[in-house]
Amino acid sequence: MKRGRRKLDNPATAKRILAAAESHFAAQGLAGARTDEIADAAHANKAMLYYYFKDKKRLHRAVLENLFRQLQALIDKLSRSQASPRETLASFVNDYFDFLASHPNYPRLVQREAMEGSGEFQRIFREYFQPFQLQLARVIDAGVKNGEFRRVDAHHAVFSLIGMTNFYFVAARRFGSLFGDDPLSPRALAGRKRALLDLLMHGLLPCETRPR
Amino acid sequence: MKRGRRKLDNPATAKRILAAAESHFAAQGLAGARTDEIADAAHANKAMLYYYFKDKKRLHRAVLENLFRQLQALIDKLSRSQASPRETLASFVNDYFDFLASHPNYPRLVQREAMEGSGEFQRIFREYFQPFQLQLARVIDAGVKNGEFRRVDAHHAVFSLIGMTNFYFVAARRFGSLFGDDPLSPRALAGRKRALLDLLMHGLLPCETRPR
DNA sequence: CCAATTAAACTAACCAGTTAGTTGAAGAAT
DNA sequence: ATTCTTCAACTAACTGGTTAGTTTAATTGG
After folding, report:
1. Range 123-152 of B in CB contact (< 8 A) with A
2. What's the CA angle centered on A53, arms A50 and A55, to 5 degrees?
3. How confident is the model at residue A210 (pLDDT cuts 50, 70, 90)?
4. SS3 for chain A, per residue?
5. Are A188 and A179 in contact (CB under 8 A)?
6. Which of B116, B130, B178 sits opposite A27 (nearest CB)?
7. Alpha carbon separation from A123 to A57, A120, B14, B187 (Å, rounded)
8. Nucleic chain D contacts, protein chain B, residues 17-76, CB cut-off 7 A
9. Which residues contact B99 (CB under 8 A, 6 or more apart)?
10. Is A167 close to B160, i.e. CB distance below 8 A?
11. Per-residue pLDDT of chain B (212 residues; tens, 9 = 90+)
């Protein structure tokens, strides 16, 4: 069944719609986003949106799955790491920060789902987010066990880590006036990453092993 | 001018509508919340919603202002504190955590505004949220200057603090399965508060002055 | 031919906001 | 004290604009 026919996956139009939908859903939410506006922003006809994605909810789900699929690479790297917990964690925070910086819609979409999550998104969370959390907690636990980290509760540490990292990207645009220039500029991002790792590592490491 | 007419403020119905609106807006957002559902939840007729609050947007704004007014007490206490920066901060985090625990809709509403904030809410943020951030940053700066804290960037520390504190309340319901029982139970909350203060204080304090 | 695409008009549902009218109690008038 | 008046509080049903989703007819290019 080679069927030399043209394939119908991932034409440019579908990608443009997905990208436009991503930013609209991130900014306005599933209920707030307008399908007409998404189509316009994608320079596509509204009918194409239904042609490729069937309906609004499925488009929204496709957006989430697309992002989580990209995040999956980080989780894989995390679970394959052979380095010490401390190095593994530092490297992960670095990667995760860069992921957020290059996918600024992701944290907003995730926060929204965390707040309402129509129940049918439970599946996505179980499939992507929980392994992510558990893997991180495992790394921290390993660090506690081998004495690299202080005796912290790993799950709480993971929550704190994700919370402080995400919040900047969720809120920066609005509260960022305090940081002077654009909070998403390379300069501001570098400063944020440094501050984040500094606070986190000092919070986790026992005195003796502290850097600097 | 006695004009012994009846008074028209704060009838129970308006309060019930405000409370119902708070949880619906927190869970579904301004666009996602349904006025009919809010009215039903408040055991009121939908028209009463318009009678007391004029329209959906104004009801939403009233919800936010009501919460921020309550938060104001914490900011006042923070700015009046005579204690050391370290004690002031620890006491504030404690109070803020309790505020979130007793107003679980607040962080979700704030996150939503941070994500979309129709521009007309800039006013509310400038009036309530910025002073809150600035006051906190001032406390941390004072701690850095008098040597109680490490040399951290105060604004970044504030972002991290708010992010890690809020995130638990925003996400707990959905991701909280990892914490065993109900993440909003007194037991779980006590554990979270402890973990939070522990990580934050170890992150901020120089080695010599660490507790324990 | 066929997949991809466009433009535009259409519909059905939904939902914010309105209206017209009711109730009940506090005053005022007699 | 009884009746009449007024008005805040409340209700049920309605209206009209908006929006998700559809359809149709026509177009392009492999």
Report:
1. 125, 129-130, 133-134, 137, 150, 152
2. 60
3. low
4. CCCCCCCCCCCHHHHHHHHHHHHHHHHHHHHHCCHHHHHHHCCCCHHHHHHHHCCHHHHHHHHHHHHHHHHHHHHHHHHHCCCCHHHHHHHHHHHHHHHHHHCCHHHHHHHHHHHCCCCCCHHHHHHHHHHHHHHHHHHHHHHHHCCCCCCCCHHHHHHHHHHHHHHHHHHHHHHHHHHCCCCCCHHHHHHHHHHHHHHHHHHHCCHHHCCC
5. yes
6. B116
7. 14, 6, 39, 28
8. 44-48, 51
9. B70, B71, B74, B106
10. yes
11. 223 334 446 789 999 999 999 999 999 999 999 999 999 999 999 999 999 999 999 999 999 999 999 999 999 999 999 999 999 999 999 999 999 999 999 999 999 998 986 677 788 888 888 898 999 999 999 999 999 999 999 999 999 999 999 999 998 887 766 676 788 999 999 999 999 999 999 999 887 665 55
Q: Which CATH class is domain A58-209?
A: mainly alpha
pTM for the structure as a whole:
0.91
Query: Which CATH number does the domain A1-54 belong to among 1.25.40.10, 1.10.10.60, 1.10.8.50, 3.30.300.130?
Result: 1.10.10.60
Rounded distance between C-alpha atoms, residue A5 and residue A135, angstroms:
43
Judge whether A110 and A162 are in contact, CB under 8 Å.
no
Report domain extents, chain B: 1-54, 58-209
Q: What are phi and psi of B211, to 5 degrees?
A: -75, 170
Task: State the residue for tokens 């402080």.
Answer: A164
* Each residue's pLDDT tens digit, A144-174: 999 999 999 999 999 999 999 999 999 888 7
Please judge whether A179 and B155 are an interchain contact, meaning their C-beta atoms are less than 8 angstroms apart.
Answer: yes
Closest to B163 (Cβ–Cβ): which among A125, A133, A166? Answer: A166
| SS3 assignment, position B185 | coil
